[in-house]
Amino acid sequence: MVSISVTAAGGDESPAEESPVDDPSVEESSGGESAVDGWPAPVTGSEFDRPGAHRYAECWAREVARCGFVATSTAESQRLLLAQTVRLARAVLAEPFTPQPGYDIGRALVDAHLTEPGVLDWSVRALGEQFRAVVLPALPDATTTPRIAALAGALSAGFAGALRQRTLSQQERIAQAAWEARDRVERALRDSEARFRAVFVDAAIGIGIADVNGQVIDVNRAFADLLGYSVDELREINVAALFHRDDAAGMWELYQQLIEGKQDAVRVEKRYFRKDGSAVWTDLAVSLIRHDDGRPRFTVAMVEDITERHELQQRLRYQASHDPLTGLPNRTLFFDRLGEVFATGGPDDRVGICFLDLDGFKAVNDSLGHDLGDNLLVTVARRLADCVAGQGHLVARMGGDEFVILIDHNAGCRAVKAVADLALAAVAEPVQIGEHRLSVSASIGVVSGPLATTSVAELMKAADVTLYWAKAEGRNRWVSYDPARRAREQTRSALIAGMSAALHRGEFVVDYQPIVTLADEAICAVEALVRWRHPELGLLGPDEFIGLAEETGLIVDLGRWVLARACEAASRWHRDFPEARLVVSVNLAARQARDPAIVGTVSEVLRQTELPADLLQLELTESAVMATAGEPLPALRRLAALGVRLAIDDFGTGYSNLAYLRRLPIHNLKLAGPFVEGIRSSDRQGLVDGRIVDALVRLAHALGLTVTAEAVETLGQADQLRALGCDAAQGRYFAAPAPEGEITGWLTARARRRRDDVA
Ligand code: C2E
Ligand code: MG
Ligand code: MG
């Protein structure tokens, strides 16, 4: 039902005269009324109702808004519809009448996008029912009704016409746009196809396309040239036929993964067979092209010839891993291979090496020149390689005149030693270089053992050590690694390294072994014997470290320390038991005896400890007494001049030359243990030793020397020595070496016994 409120209608409400409501393009002044002056006179001379026109336009705008989406604001559509209302009213009043304005108004509605179907419906119906009543109330129906009907019809026609036209033009625009778009796509496709062809055909790099079965679909010229085929020939081929039999492991699997769609791209360096059978190295990049649904469709391969680069790399790699002089693998390659043996070997596998060094090579080099030395190395290298040729062992030059043979075939000790024999024999053959005929030999360290118990570093260390042993044992031989020997040497090194600090930390102690007069078995002297309370190795006897101390020279400090402790103890005994006249006998190592400061040291110790010089005896071995060139030690007389006693220790184990003793200020001979041990037995050897001891004692006495027998262990020995006229004796039979306190204890007991005897 179309209804228009008429509440605002009234004659007294006169709208503003100047509102240009007939021209929608002219801005309406706010709240003002449109001007309607200058219109053609109405049929009846009447005017339309302007407030009514306003109300009608308002209502029209409201209905339009209710019909649906309106692109313009309410104020704008109201102004537009007021203009159309005025136009309609004027059309009704115009003379002569024409329905054309209705047509134009219909078009204007469509142009203003008021195209909802309800808009036309309302507009036409309101014209029929309400327009005349509200806008033209003063005119008779008979005059206006046909005109309004004609205008309504024209409005419908204008509306429909404009709407159709608009739809058509929109379709046209869409079609145009679609056409242009398609054109653009086709052009782009054509362009990209052209670009692709340009790239594919003319590319310097080889490009090939194959299906997922490996069947070649297309290749470019560069690809064909690379492999020495024509493009057409290659189009007939399956890529499998191009694979090289020496391709790295896994290459075919990579390709499989690609065509199965598990990978999208693969890049490898690989060899191809050319048509003529030769090989070409390529940098190959294969990409997978999929169907829209993701299934693998094609592979596109790009290949670049890198043969030259590859050969250069190979050459560089060879140079980096081979010795330029001999052509043998160098130490880098050797260690690579050894590392592989360890990395790939099982828990029960073994490894063996022969570490070889030429004997006296430096002398050859220095005397005959480096060129000849180089020639010799080349010859030795060739012989070593030849002697194990075909056995699969690696012969490498480690540097200088050092070579190594790696036996990694799980070889046992025997096999490794056999290789060492072969190597020695190969080197031993005389070498003819120019006019020189050289006899060469080598020393070899042989190491073999289970992989599980060693490492590369340990193996090489063992080889080094063993080679050193072979050299030390006289060269021209192989020596097999001995872990126990190495452990001993390591202990030795540890002792040497720790000895000096141990002396400062007070780890050394001095024991004293009683020496008795055989006649009455009374203690007449004690021998100072040093021990090392090692924090880890326990109590060490002097045989385990005195030799090392002599090697390092620490014996001078250590000997001075022992001398001072022994003289302090002897001084205390002398103070407490003066009647005992107990002599302390201190060992003097050869190196100590040769120390220029020795005389000063001894006199200084005597002075500090206030020990009478004749209560100190110094024991020197025969070799220590004899300085260079058979001349006796110059310090000997000066020591004797201090008043100290001098004894020859371990007599019978060295020169045993009594003649020189005549010229020396010696007081005492200490007979070495082995003689004393000999007289223990009653067999022939025992008899001989008995005679020797007898002769020695007589001679010593003839020279004015006393004789002390060492290492007396039994009553029989003691009796026999006494019977032979030996003066004194020392040994476990009487007493073992003991701490100072124990000696003091014996001296105390003896002094008490004597006091008791006197009492
Ligand atoms: P040495 O001077 O001949 O000392 C005697 C060695 O015989 C001592 O060995 C002693 O313990 C051992 N001995 C004692 N009674 C018996 C026995 O009944 N039978 C046997 N078979 N041996 C017995 P030790 O204490 O092991 O000393 C070994 C060597 O070390 C000494 O031989 C001496 O040459 C050297 N030595 C010990 N202390 C020193 C020192 O302070 N300085 C130097 N330079 N050498 C020392
Ligand atoms: Mg001694
Ligand atoms: Mg001795």
TrEMBL record:
Q: What domain of life is recorded for the organism?
A: Bacteria
Task: Please report the stretch or stretches of sequence annotated as the GGDEF domain.
Answer: 349-483
Q: Which residues form the PAS domain?
A: 192-262
Give me the stretches of Acidic residues compositional bias: 14-26
Gene3D superfamilies in alphabetical order: 3.30.70.270, EAL domain, PAS domain
All copies of the EAL domain together span 492-751
What InterPro entries does UniProt report for this protein, alphabetically? Biofilm_reg_signaling, EAL_dom, EAL_sf, GGDEF_dom, Nucleotide_cyclase, PAC, PAS, PAS-assoc_C
Which Pfam families has this protein been placed in? EAL, GGDEF, PAS_9
Task: Indicate the segments forming the PAC domain, all copies.
Answer: 266-318
PROSITE patterns assigned: EAL (PS50883), GGDEF (PS50887), PAC (PS50113), PAS (PS50112)
In residue numbers, the region (Disordered) covers 1-45
**PANTHER family attached to this UniProt entry:** BIOFILM ARCHITECTURE MAINTENANCE PROTEIN MBAA (PTHR44757:SF2), DIGUANYLATE CYCLASE DGCP (PTHR44757)
Supply the name of the protein.
GGDEF domain-containing protein
